[in-house]
Amino acid sequence: MLQLVVTNTNKKINKFRATLSPNILDSDKITYLHETTACEIRAIMGMLYARGMLGQNLLHVNWLFGEHVGHPIFGATMSKNRFKFLMTKLSFDDEDTRPARWQNYRFAAFRELHDMMNKNCAQAVTPNDFITLDETLYPMRTGIGFRQYN
Fold first, then answer.
1. How far apart are CA 112 and CA 3, in angstroms?
2. What is the dihedral of CA 108, 122, 51, 106, to 10 degrees?
3. b/e code 93-130 from CB counts within 10 Å (16+ = b)
4. CB atoms < 10 A from the CB of 34, how many?
5. Within the chain, what is the greatest distance between any pair of CA atoms?
6. Which sign does the torsion angle of CA 68, 43, 77, 11 carry?
7. Would 42 be classed as within a structural domain?
8. For residue 132, how many other CB atoms are within 10 A of its CB?
9. Which class for 33: exposed (0-12), middle (13-18), buried (19 or more C-beta within 10 A)?
10. N or C: which end of the chain has fewer CB within 10 A?
11. What count of other Cβ atoms lies within 10 Å of the Cβ of residue 83?
């Protein structure tokens, strides 16, 4: 699953890098435009988890990496510019084939990763006689493009 995210994110990064001029890419000041790795994607996921756990999910990224407001774990993990760049380029599927898949299926952007997650969860959990489901329905007023049945 992680390798799928890394591969598709790197495709998006390389597509973006192709639009930049060579003098920008060779600049010593801009060091965050390189491809990502599985370790870095794990770090992003950990930072997002820590952000929610620390109750800082509503803080602006500039404050999150700030010296006085944000937690030191964010600045110690990666730079603010690299975090912003990766968050804008994070991709879960191949964007080149997405329009064709989108016509048939609205969940196309996340489908492959979702199937992998379901497969992994099915291997980890074995249902037994004492499993239950809660059927609580919560009222909501949102306009969604599909029907959901319980």
1. 12
2. 10
3. beeeeeeebeeeeeebbeebbeeeeeeeeeeeeeeeee
4. 13
5. 65
6. negative
7. yes
8. 5
9. middle
10. C
11. 21
Structure tokens at 15: 């597509």
Residue 110 lies in a domain: no
Instruction: Print the domain residue range for 41.
Output: 2-89
Determine, yes or no, domain membership for 56: yes
**CA–CA distance from 144 to each of 141, 148, 150 (Å)?**
9, 9, 16
CB 69, CB 59: distance < 8 Å: yes
Domain count, the chain: 1
pLDDT tens track for 86-137: 999 999 888 888 888 888 888 888 888 889 999 998 888 887 877 777 777 7
Residue the block writes with tokens 């964010």: 74
DSSP of 67-134? SSSS-HHHHHHS-HHHHHHHHHH--SS-TTTHHHHHHH-TTTTTHHHHHHHHHHHHHH----TT----
Residue 60 has which token pair? 């602006």
